[in-house]
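Lecture 7 notes. Example A: sequence first, then its structure tokens.
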Amino acid sequence: MAKYLSDEWATAAREALNSSDSFKNASKGVDLTIEQVITGAPESGEARYWIEIKDSSVDGGTGSASNPDVTISQSYETAVAINKQELNAQAAFMQGKLRVTGNMGKLLQHQALFQTMAPILAQVPTEY
């Protein structure tokens, strides 16, 4: 079981997405890089990870993306609730718990993809 936001967790999340047929189908033709900034993370205070979705596959890891289309910032509490599917990302945004900078239109264009990704990521064995 990987600790949330660790390198091992990022690897497990990437592998889960890349092995999912539903993710592959939903991400066909998508070219999007997202950086996540998590504040109040245990031990580090701030954690960052990124995902790059390119036509049915995903790459990613911990740290900053070189040129993200979108940066999403949230507290550790919010990130955990979203990852566990206890809170919807759209609801978190509407409640002011999640901030988005960058190309919001590009992010909104791929909402169906994120609905596909959420249950896959929630299945990754994770220690919070």
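Example B, a different protein, same format:
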Amino acid sequence: MGEPIGADVVFPAAAPFGRLRLALLRSRARGRVVAEGRVALGRRVRMTVAPGARVVLGDGCFVGDGVRIEAVTGEVRIGARSLIGERAVLISLAGVTIGEDCVIGDFAAVTPGDPPLRREPVRLGDRVRLGAHAAVEAGASLADGTVVGSYVVVAAEGARSA
């Protein structure tokens, strides 16, 4: 299976050293990925970072296997000691901030939502927990310590519901 179209970097298998994997990521993303300390990346992590956007990985954060991060505009910031579960998706059209000590569950998503896409920032405070398959849509802001259950969708205030 070939590399997905449009990805700046994809890790098909585990690199022998975590530092080597991060160095490869940073070189392919042309300086648009910043690590603020030690970072652990799982296999097949896919990051797409557009010109003018960037991804900042906090000290001690872990990005699980198969995670997809797309920074179209703005900044995706993952706080220190946060964990992004396997196959989670983070898409930024105006910025995503994940606080310190957060846990984003497997298959969870932070996205612009259903069409029409919202170009508003997303903020998750410190110690936020998103359950497996949970979703947070653009414009939402979660306070420190918030817990979102599995399969729950958090929409921004004023967003139309189906």
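Note on Example B: The two ends are 37 Å apart (CA to CA). The first helix runs from residue 18 to 28.
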